[in-house]
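**Sequence with structure:**
===
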Amino acid sequence: MTHRPAQTDIDIHPLIAARWSPRAYAERPVAHEQVLALLEAARWAPSAFNAQPWRFVVFEKGQDPDAFARAFATLIPFNQTWNAPAQVLIVVLADTLTSKGTVNPSASYDAGAAAMALLLQAQAQGLAAHPMSGFDASAFRQAFVIPERYAALSVISVAHHGDAQALPAALAEREAAPRARLPLDEIARFGGWQAPVREQ
């Protein structure tokens, strides 16, 4: 397991600093109880009007290998290469309609909050979890007959941590590379909007 805590400018909670998206997975089953804990964490995310628009379609390799393989096939080829040892795929969906049938403009935002809660729970459990936009949402919708009101947003693969050196050289290098984020003064404004000089 590669430990890559964020080198933050300001102290933040260790769980948040430690969370990252590894690609080195071990070919070892993830217990169903651990998967349920991930979903329970997501269940308690905040949402506008408490609408709770997140939905998850869960594929466990050890429980239903055929369904897992069908879901795996919707990943883009690059993501398939390193996800071969993955044990769980969780597809994150957003219910785009309210209980009244009107459009819910907060659905994707709220589903993202639930996904982050899931990722933090995975970190707390010592699991590796990697969210991906690289999948064919249309193929997934067709393969699993997803109703139109649900938008497929991402796939989170879950496994136990593996050996980064077992990855192809380019990915192994990325696994150990320093983590980077934009500085605070590029993402936050205080008291109003003032664009950085480079954006003016």
In short: The chain is about 35% helix and 20% strand.
